[in-house]
Amino acid sequence: MNDQWTKELQERIQKIEAGGATKYHEKNAEQNKLFVRDRLELLLDPGSIRVEDGLFANCMEEGLPADGVVTVTGKMNGQTVCVMANDSTVKAGSWGSRTVEKIIRIQETAQKLKVPMLYLVDSAGARITDQLEMFPNRRGAGRIFYNQVKMSGMVPQVCILFGPSAAGGAYIPAFCDIVIMVDKNASMYLASPRMAEMVIGQKVTLEEMGGARMHCSVSGCGDVLAKNEEEAIEIARRYLSYFPANYKQKTSKIEAKSIQEGIRSIEEIVPDNQNVAFDMKEMIRAVIDADSFFEMKELFAKEIITGFARIDGRAVGIIANQSKMKTGSLFVDSADKSARFITLCDAFNIPLIFLSDIPGFMIGTQVERSGIIRHGAKMIAAMSEATVPKISIIVRKAYGAGLYAMAGPAFEPDCCLALPTAKIAVMGPEAAVNAVYSNKIAQLEESERNEFIQQKREEYQEDINLYRLASELIIDGIIAPERLRDELKERLELYESKEMIFSERKHPVYPV
Amino acid sequence: MNKVEASMAGTVWKVLVSEGDIVESGQDVIILESMKMEIPLSAEMDGKVSKITVNEGDFVAEGDVLLELVGI
């Protein structure tokens, strides 16, 4: 072949791979941002095979290398994955028609290969000057979101947000299973502060409007807050290690580890007094393999804990009430958080473990006005529909609809087991005695009142006695706290072949 | 100045300090009662209790200020 041709090709490739102008690389560095190709280096397995399509997109135009997006298929933890990554050095990562076409194509590849799809987002949004070519048509930007919806539950979809994700572009994270946001740099908003001031007259900072910390702690649009880009990429790699490549597969069991050293026993962790809070995270660490906990939405709706872990090397999803935060009652946000997590685990064949210590759904005007009933319905629907192995452990209290939401006996868990500290009832003894006997109590003389209440509470306690519940086969067993980890280990192994179809229909009418 | 706010709706069960008391960061100052659970609320800084805005038995909503602290 003509040497000159090869030389020209090499030069062109080099130029494209260098991304945008030097000043934009410098600006990136100032903001502690990595160049897109360096991000990919960290994300994919070192030295592993990878292929890139559309490198020459828009190469007839000056200053638009790869049209501002890199799309590759490569290996991550040994698993094939598809990746789209915005190049913030090229017109601030904005989308032109070829950018959009490349994103659509890599999504199509992920669907055909049935492998995880990652979105490395750092984009100012649409190139308004190119709107007719990239916005409204059949293969315009809308198709990216349409594809995401189609792929949801088929293959894992992961978003790492390194910079802005504005306007329509903000829907890429919205349709992903997990959104990892880099503190200070990542942001998500429908309209920028400048636009908001112009249109509705509101003056705010970008951080207030759509900063990473706000989204991870207040709005719930973000799942994990990362200190920097390197950490964000590491988090994505860790996250996918709990997942199979697609909905047809199961996560492989890895080498088991024993529990973290120095953890107190469950007996020591769980107080007998039902009115006193304890740290459920410590209890989780007392049953899982050391260092295997990956928490989702750690900063959001903290009264419920949702996260992945490994028990005896097997991946599980844990949903646990945190009495230390807002008594562990379920609120609007915590119900949403749980529903979302349950759906995620169920989609990818990850068994669920519920650890209950719940006084119930929160009551009062504030939550009623926010629609606690319809939000609670989302959680109960998601939990009912889950067909993965479903293990319900009553750690301490499971009162009222709290029992239902935490996979109580009526919701076909594969087992519902209680620790000796468990209490299952419509409500606690104090509230129940008051509810049933309030008229009677009011009529009694002051001197008789306390004795009467005490007597009725004791009768109530007897009524909800754990052995009575076990005798009536309401629960499947009572287990000693020190047996819990082994019990989970064994049941997870025995339930592996579980296969069931929940219901016959097109799809449910989802509570929202 | 630093404020201690109700973390959720409930009743003020115990006020553990008086105006003028010196408290340390992390010290429990008020215990709320909600959903039949005790919810201890602690000071977030070392300081002096400058104002207590609630009495035992009061109903409080999430975010209500219960107590104010000033640095010393």
Automatic annotation (TrEMBL), chain A:
Gene Ontology MF: a single term = methylcrotonoyl-CoA carboxylase activity
Q: Which GO terms describe its cellular component?
A: methylcrotonoyl-CoA carboxylase complex
Mind listing the GO biological process terms from this record?
L-leucine catabolic process
What is a single Pfam family found in this protein's UniProt entry? Carboxyl_trans
Q: Does the keyword Transferase apply?
A: yes
Span of domain CoA carboxyltransferase C-terminal = 261-507
Record's superkingdom? Bacteria
User: The CoA carboxyltransferase N-terminal domain covers which part of the protein?
Assistant: 2-255
Provide the alphabetized UniProt keywords: Transferase
**Name of this chain's protein:** Acetyl-CoA carboxylase carboxyltransferase component
Q: What is the lineage of its organism?
A: Bacteria, Bacillati, Bacillota, Bacilli, Bacillales
UniProtKB/TrEMBL annotation, chain B:
Q: Which Pfam families match?
A: Biotin_lipoyl
Q: Which UniProt keywords apply?
A: Biotin
Protein's UniProt name: Acetyl-CoA carboxylase biotin carboxyl carrier protein
Q: Which InterPro entries match?
A: Biotin_Carboxyl_Carrier/Decarb, Biotin_lipoyl, Single_hybrid_motif
Task: Keyword check for Transport, yes or no.
Answer: no
Q: Do you know which CDD domains this protein is assigned to?
A: biotinyl_domain
SUPFAM superfamilies from the UniProt entry: Single hybrid motif
Any idea where the Lipoyl-binding domain is?
Answer: 1-70
